[in-house]
C-alpha cells in the first residue's frame, strides 16, 4: 500500500481508502458480520483511512468503525455532519448544533478526536458565508477534531471553500465520468496544500461494467430511490448520469480493463493516477469487493495516450449527459 499526505494535516493516508455509506445503509441489504470482516481485511492490507458520516445508517456506520478499529490510533477516520438536520436552516451550522453533531459522532466512534471533520454537502450559501468555519476552528483548538474540510457537490463550491485557510481537504465526486475537477479545482487545491478525497469513484457501480440496462435495484437502495435525484443531489447516484445511458457508456469503456484485470480496478487506477488526488474512497459491502478494490493499487497505470483517449471520451460522450449542477 502506498500512502499520500492529506493536505496539511501532518498525516499520511492509504491512497486506496474506503467509504462506509454502503455498510451503513441505503445500498440494499447488509450483513454486519460481513461488513466487519471486510473492514478488517482492508486494515490488514494497509488501509489506514475510512470515511463515514453521522447519517450513514443513522450512525450505524460509525458504530461499525468503532467495533472494527477498537480505538486504534494508527487508523484515521473522517466523518461528516449537517445532514442529520435541515441543511437549509442556518441554525444547523450554529456552534451548539455542530458541537452536538461532533460529540454524538465521537461517542459512536469511541474516540476523543475525529481526524477529519467535514461539512456534508451543504447548500452553497453555507460555504459562501463561512460562519461554520469559525465553529470548526474552535473544535480544532479544543482537540475535538484534528482537521476539517468540506464535501462538495460542485466545482464552484470547492473553489469557494478553498478561500478559507482552515480547510484542509475537499471531498468531491470524481471518476472517469466526472472529470471536470481536473480543469481548475485540482490544480488550485494542490497549490493551496488541500487534500482531495475522490468519492463515487465507480459511479455507483456503473464503472464496474457489471450492469445491464434491465437491472433492478432493491427498494432501499439509493440507486433506486434517488436514480433521478428524487431524495438528494442527483450527482451522488450514477455520477448524475441516467442509468441506462451510463450502462451504454460503460460498455464503450471495456477496453480500460485490458491488462488490468477488470473495469473496477482500471477505473480506480485512473483516479490514483491523478497526482492531486490524496485517496479514492470506494464503498464496499463484502470482502470480495474490498479485495477487488485493493487490487487497483497493483495494476498498470494509464499511459498518456490512454489518458488522452479518456479525456476525449468525457468531452465527446459524457459531460453533456450529466444532470444537475457539477
UniProtKB/TrEMBL annotation:
Gene Ontology terms for molecular function: oxidoreductase activity
Organism from which the protein derives: Alicyclobacillus ferrooxydans
Name of the protein in question: Aldo/keto reductase
Domain NADP-dependent oxidoreductase: 15-313
PANTHER family, per database record: D-THREO-ALDOSE 1-DEHYDROGENASE (PTHR43312), NADP-DEPENDENT OXIDOREDUCTASE DOMAIN-CONTAINING PROTEIN (PTHR43312:SF1)
Amino acid at each position: 500500500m502506498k500512502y499520500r499526505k492529506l493536505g496539511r494535516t501532518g498525516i499520511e493516508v492509504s491512497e486506496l481508502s474506503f467509504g462506509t455509506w454502503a455498510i451503513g445503509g441505503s445500498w440494499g441489504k447488509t450483513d454486519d458480520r460481513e461488513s466487519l470482516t471486510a473492514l478488517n481485511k482492508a486494515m490488514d492490507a494497509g488501509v489506514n483511512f475510512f470515511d463515514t458520516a453521522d447519517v450513514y445508517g443513522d450512525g450505524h456506520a460509525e458504530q461499525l468503525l468503532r467495533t472494527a478499529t477498537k480505538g486504534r490510533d494508527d487508523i484515521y477516520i473522517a466523518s461528516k455532519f449537517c445532514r442529520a438536520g435541515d441543511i437549509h436552516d442556518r441554525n444547523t451550522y450554529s456552534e451548539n448544533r455542530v458541537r452536538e453533531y461532533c460529540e454524538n459522532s465521537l461517542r459512536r466512534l469511541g474516540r476523543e478526536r475525529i481526524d477529519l471533520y467535514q461539512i456534508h454537502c451543504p447548500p452553497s450559501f453555507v460555504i459562501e458565508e463561512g460562519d461554520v468555519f469559525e465553529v470548526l476552528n474552535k473544535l480544532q483548538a479544543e482537540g475535538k477534531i484534528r482537521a476539517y474540510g468540506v464535501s462538495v457537490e460542485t466545482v464552484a463550491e470547492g473553489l469557494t471553500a478553498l478561500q478559507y485557510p482552515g480547510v484542509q481537504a475537499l471531498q468531491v465526486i470524481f471518476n472517469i465520468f466526472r472529470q471536470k475537477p481536473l480543469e481548475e479545482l485540482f490544480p488550485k487545491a494542490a497549490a493551496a496544500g488541500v487534500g482531495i478525497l475522490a468519492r463515487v469513484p465507480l459511479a455507483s457501480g456503473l464503472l464496474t461494467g457489471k450492469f445491464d440496462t434491465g437491472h433492478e435495484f432493491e427498494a432501499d437502495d439509493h440507486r433506486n430511490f434517488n436514480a433521478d435525484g428524487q431524495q438528494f443531489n442527483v450527482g451522488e447516484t450514477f455520477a448524475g448520469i441516467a442509468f441506462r445511458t451510463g450502462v451504454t457508456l460503460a460498455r464503450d469503456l471495456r477496453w480500460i480493463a485490458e491488462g488490468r484485470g477488470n473495469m473496477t480496478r482500471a477505473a480506480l487506477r485512473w483516479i490514483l493516477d491523478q497526482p492531486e488526488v490524496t485517496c479514492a474512497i470506494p464503498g464496499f459491502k463484502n470482502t470480495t469487493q474490498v479485495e477487488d478494490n485493493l487490487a487497483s493499487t497493483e495494476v498498470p497505470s494509464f499511459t498518456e495516450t490512454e489518458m488522452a483517449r479518456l479525456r476525449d471520451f468525457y468531452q465527446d460522450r459524457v459531460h453533456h449527459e450529466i444532470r444537475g449542477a457539477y
